[in-house]
Each structure stands twice: as structure tokens, then as C-alpha cells.
Amino acid sequence: xxxxxxxxxxxxxxxxxxxxxxxxxxxxxxxxxLNPNSFSSSDFEKEWERFLEVIIGExxxxxxxxxxxxxxxxxxxxxxxxxxxxxxxxxxxLPESTxxxxxxxxxxxxxxxxxxxxxxxxxxxxxxxxxxxxxKLEKGSGMHIxxxxxxxxxTVAECNAGHYPEALVCAAKTLRMINDHxxxxxxxxxxxxxxxxMFLQMNMEGLAEQYRLKAIEESKKRSREVQS
Length: 228
Hints:
Elements: H1 6-11, H2 21-33, H3 41-58, H4 64-68, H5 70-76, H6 80-93, H7 98-110, H8 114-135, H9 142-160, H10 164-181, H11 186-201, H12 205-227
Keywords: TPR repeat
Protein name: MalT-like TPR region domain-containing protein
InterPro entries: TPR-like_helical_dom_sf (IPR011990), TPR_rpt (IPR019734)
């Protein structure tokens, strides 16, 4: 995003109105500094301190939508701790959002904090299942598909933490969720790959090979469907 004044950001839909303009200005400045063509780590560090001071001072009068524009830029620069801070703020601002919990889990996962990542993914899954029950959503709904994704990443986190009993249970629940609600999900091939790695770590070569072959076949199937 090229440098624009705040009114332009509002008018063009980059930012939402109605929250602290002081916070929005700080967010816009960080976003400008994350421009890949002009990024300076020293400039960023100085502005990041000012940004945090503003966000803390204006909290909670901050737009989660406006904050979210920083996620891609921070991730692209591998600024993982800064990304975690943004995700934590967003989760506080939107405590009922399964997506915020999910992205917070990713932020912890990228920092190899597998226990915290697992807690976030589990929370996202539980919140999704509560919404499914409350709204009486039918089989195959988008929320069912999302819940399967949250379970998949919960399995990844538990596996990376070496919690294999928990990972096995999550893996089984994920397969059931995907097959029941979205058998063509892109998560299926990825889930097979993850299970292949999990069984390798558990020294179960036979099962590892089975899921390696399943992952290959599922990837080929998805490729054929895309081409047809």
C-alpha cells in the first residue's frame, strides 16, 4: 500500500472509521514502513515502540480490522514476535472470534511455542462447535469446515510438542470431521502428510508409509479435479 492520508484509507476501504484516529495513524505508519521496497529495520524498530505506546494508550478504542492489515507485512518480514503482539491485541478485541484464536495459534506456532498454539487451536475448535450447536448448522457448513481446519492444526501443535497420545486423538477426530463434512477439503492431503511425519517420529514406519501414500494419492486426486 502506497503512503496515503487517513481519509484516503477510510474512503477506499483500507481502514474502517469509528475508532481512535490516533491509533489508525500509528497503524498506517507501521504499514507504510513494512513496504517491501523501502523497509528499514532501524526505522521500523523506532516506530514500533511509538506504535505500541499509542495502541496501549488508546486501547480498547482500536479497530481489529485496521490492525489486521499489518499481519501480512509482519509475516513477510518474519517479524514473528511483533505479529504475536498484533494477534494478541486482536484476540482481546474480538474474544468470540474463532479466526482470531486460529491466527493467534499460528503466531505461537511460528515461535515454536507449541503448548500455547495448541491451546489457541483447541479454543477455536471448541468455539466453532458451540456456534454449530447454537445455530443448528447443517452438515457440511462453512463452520464445520473451519472446525476441521482448527483440529488439523491442533494435531500439528500436539505432534510438534511430542504429545503423541493427544495428537493421535486429534488426528482421528480431524479425519472424521473432514470426511463427514468436506471430503474434498484441501486439509485432507495436508493432514495425511502430517500423520506421515507423526508416525515417523513415533517410529511406526508401517503406518507412516501408509499415510505417505495416502497423501500422494489425495494430492493427485485434487490435481485431477482442478484440471477437469
